[in-house]
Amino acid sequence: MVMYLSEERIEDLLRWDPLIAAMETALASFSLGRVLQPVRNMLTIEEGKRYLGIMPAVAEDAMGAKLVSFYPGNSGTGVPTHLAMILLFRPDTGEPLAVMDGRLITEMRTAAVSAAATRWLAAPDAQILALLGSGVQARAHLQALMLVRHFAEVRVWSRTAEHAERFAEQHKAKAMPAESAVRGADVIVTATAAVKPILKGAWLKPGAHVNAVGSPRPDWRELDDAAMANTLVVDSREAVLKESGDVILSKAKIYTEIGEIFAGVKEAPVSATTVFKSVGIAIEDIAAAKLVYDAACGEH
């Protein structure tokens, strides 16, 4: 029997700490060449509004694929902008194991990867967190990052002021303009669908760490060239050079993949001002899905 796991079921099973650890392991394996994975195939159905992504991956202990729909046009409608399904197979026999909703896994694995990167790259005594964006990813990042650093202050900005105010109220944060939020912040998250930069390098304090997870198209930007000129770490060189406008348009030099730092192959540049640009790759989804599947099996 192929197991089916709904979003509600996944919410019961998926926990941040094991997920953050699983993302470190998966990305280390990826950067060491132990994962078979093409760059995501993104079909443009309607430019700027409707996309379908196909994301297969094979690791030593997990195999599967995610189909993800990215509909920026859904913003503000009550229907999420990202929806997905994940298929999981046994890597040794090829037997299908599970079909599961991928929306929450996508949300949580993105923030878990940023949390792992923050653990290695941010100042150990980081106090101030700034969130640019107030949607699903801002909330997930707040939850995940709180597990790796103790923030005394959380700031939030959104293009829609009332969204930032609502987020601030719900999460004991302070809503403020983007520049005020970023200046003096130790860790910054950009989680928007911005087409033009919303974060300027001039605002970053020396030694700050940025997790840039939004604007996943080759001609969209969240960070200006000055921000991108800092020490740049990515989830996948190949993927960002195809998908990330921030990397492509700034022609920024990539210092390393985060998996190379996790694997101990590259030094973590802790005292530098760092930008972690992630576009999200299939092995993250498959490793997270395997974690969920194992947790579900453990309950039987």
Textual characterization of the structure:
The protein is an alpha/beta fold and 300 residues long. It folds into two domains: 3-105 and 283-299, 2-Layer Sandwich (ornithine cyclodeaminase, domain 1); 110-281, Rossmann fold (3-Layer(aba) Sandwich). 36% of the residues lie in helices and 24% in strands. It contains eleven helices and 14 strands. The chain has helices spanning 7-13, 16-31, 103-121, 136-145, 161-171, 178-182, 225-228, 237-243, 245-250, 258-262, 282-299; strands spanning 3-5, 41-46, 50-58, 63-70, 82-89, 96-101, 128-132, 153-157, 174-175, 187-190, 209-212, 231-234, 254-257, 274-277. The chain has an eight-stranded parallel beta sheet. Strands 1-6-5-4-3-2 form a six-stranded mixed beta sheet. A hairpin with a 4-residue loop joins strand 3 and strand 4 (63-70). Helix 3 packs across helix 11 (282-299). The protein starts with a strand and ends with a helix.
Give the fraction of residues assigned to helices.
25-40%
Form type: globular
How many domains? The number is: 2
Low-confidence stretches: none
Strand sequence of the main sheet, in spatial order? 9-8-7-10-11-14-12-13
The total of helices stands at: 11
Q: What is the radius of gyration computed over CA atoms, rounded to a whole number of angstroms?
A: 18 Å
Average pLDDT for all residues: 97
Residue share in β-strands: 15-25%
Number of strands: 14
CATH-defined architecture of the largest domain:
3-Layer(aba) Sandwich
